[in-house]
Structures are given as structure tokens and as C-alpha cells.
Design goal:
The chain has about 270 residues and is mainly beta. It has one domain: Nucleic acid-binding proteins (OB fold (Dihydrolipoamide Acetyltransferase, E2P)). The chain has one helix and 17 strands. The strands form five sheets. The chain has a seven-stranded antiparallel beta sheet, with no helix packed on it. Strand 13 and strand 14 form a beta hairpin. The longest helix has 6 residues. It is globular, with a radius of gyration of 22 Å.
């Protein structure tokens, strides 16, 4: 799994970096595991833009990922590793002994032909899914449940990994990819290893067209607008706005804490740096 630089045949190509796709073994998704994906263009049910700078982009199909891994004690074989346009990580296609097929998030180091299992007695091996109480302290994990049976919620993006720091029944102390340390119940399941496609952060789009392919529309900075259009607009010559950075509606954007108190706050032992 790697990245490639392009020859500088144009000014945009000079800085662009893309994937080599060496790890991809299948160029079409499993038809039975895909559903149509309708784009919103950033509009809500009333047709009003509620999420700006979205629209267009390449047509996609949604791949149904098995985040629950609830086919317990049934071995599965990795039959394909695929690209998923809806997420930064790669996905792996598993075929179980009863011929059922499911997609999972592909961890780093997973190869074609590997045999995986989701079980309380599974081997400590990349791709296997076990309860936290059976996973050794210090072991890299991903796709972690926060509530038993609700499916993986944490560490699902490219290169993500969490680590079990300690165990105090009935909780494990898990360091999240953000650096936050959180209490997670020991009976929650997690997968062994780090999410693959680790070099995703080194990708450079290089040109506006690649943003459009991803469904990202152009936007103007607030400081180059007129005062009637943005609080940071106006000024003689180039101006940095003359006030704290804000949204077009005047809400502070840098440094303002927007997270509302949640019932799960009591499970946070240490906030992210």
C-alpha cells in the first residue's frame, strides 16, 4: 500500500500525489452488498443548503460494512481487498464457511487467503475480533464498540489505532486515536491491528478537479468578501478581517468549544491534548 508522485507535466500535477492501489485485488464491489447512494447536495428536506460547499462528485454505491462482526465462531477467508469511495480505509471481503459474504474494515497487514474469526476464544491475530477482556494490554486495536452489540464506533478511519492502557473491571482504559483516554466496558468487542491505508495523510489533491470528483464545491474565504456578505470582509488592501475568525453568521470558529455535555462524559478519563 503506497503513494505515488506524478510527473510535473502541468502546474497542478507538480504537487499532486495519489495512491498506487497495489493492495487492491478486485475492481468491482460485491453486488449483493451494495445499495444506491443518493446525493443531497448539502440540502435538507426543505431544499435549503444546510451544509455548504457540497455537490456534484462521482457517482457512488454504498458498501454495507459489517461493523458488528456478530457471526461468532465461524471462520472466514479473505477473498478480496477493495477500494471504497465512501471512506478513507480499504475494505476486505470475507467469505464464511456457509458461503455468506460480508465486508469489514481492512486492517494493515491483512492479505488474501488469511482466515479470520470473531470469537471470545479467537487467536490474537490481525483482523480477528475479540472482547476487550481477552485482548492484552498495549495491543493495537481498531473498530471498537462503545456499547455491547451496537457495532464498532471508534477507530475506523485510515491509519487509526487505539491502545488498551489498563483494565479495571468492568472497564478497560482505552487510548483513542485522538489521544483521549476513555472507559470502555470489557465485554465490548474490538478488532486486532491498525486500520490500513496508513499513508492516506500524505495524499495531495493537487488540482481543483480532484476536489470536484470528491463532491467538494469551490468556496471563497471570508476575508476577500464585502462586509455585507461576511463579518471578516472589507478593509483597504489585504486585511486579515480585523476581528476574531468567524462564520458568515458571526459565530466564532477558532477556539470556541462547541461540544455539549453528554451522558458519556463520565467515561472520559483524560481529554485529548
Amino acid at each position: 500500500m503506497g503513494t505515488k508522485k506524478y510527473k510535473p507535466t502541468t502546474p497542478a500535477r507538480r504537487w499532486a500525489a495519489g495512491y498506487t492501489f497495489d493492495e487492491i485485488t478486485k475492481d468491482r464491489p460485491e453486488k449483493s452488498l451494495t445499495v444506491a447512494l443518493r446525493k443531497s447536495g448539502g440540502r435538507n428536506v426543505n431544499g435549503r443548503v444546510t451544509s455548504r460547499h457540497r455537490g456534484g462528485g462521482h457517482k457512488r454505491k454504498w458498501r454495507m460494512i459489517d461493523f458488528k462482526r456478530d457471526k461468532y465462531d465461524v471462520p472466514a477467508k479473505v477473498v478480496a481487498i477493495e477500494y471504497d469511495p465512501n471512506r478513507t480505509s480499504r475494505i476486505a471481503l470475507l467469505e464464511y464457511e456457509d458461503a455468506e459474504r460480508r465486508y469489514i474494515i481492512c486492517p494493515d497487514g491483512l492479505k488474501l487467503g488469511d482466515r479470520l474469526v470473531s470469537s471470545s476464544t479467537a487467536e490474537i491475530k490481525v483482523g480477528n475480533t475479540l472482547p476487550l477482556e481477552r485482548i492484552p494490554v498495549g495491543m493495537p486495536i481498531h473498530a471498537i464498540e462503545l456499547e455491547r452489540g451496537k457495532g464498532a464506533k471508534i477507530a475506523r478511519s485510515a491509519g487509526d489505532l487505539a491502545v488498551i492502557m489498563a483494565k479495571e473491571s468492568p472497564f478497560a482504559h482505552v487510548r483513542m486515536p485522538s489521544g483521549e483516554v476513555r472507559l470502555v466496558k470489557l465485554d465490548c468487542f474490538a478488532s486486532i491491528g491498525q486500520v490500513g491505508n496508513i499513508e492516506h495523510d500524505s495524499i495531495t489533491l493537487g488540482k481543483a478537479g480532484r476536489s470536484r470528483h470528491l463532491g467538494i464545491r469551490p468556496f471563497s474565504r471570508g476575508v476577500v468578501k464585502n462586509p455585507v456578505d461576511h463579518p471578516m470582509g472589507g478593509g483597504e488592501g489585504k486585511s486579515s478581517g480585523g476581528r476574531h475568525p468567524s462564520t458568515p453568521w458571526g459565530k466564532i470558529t477558532k477556539g470556541l468549544k462547541t461540544r455539549k455535555p453528554k451522558r458519556s462524559d463520565k467515561y472520559i478519563l483524560k481529554r485529548r491534548p
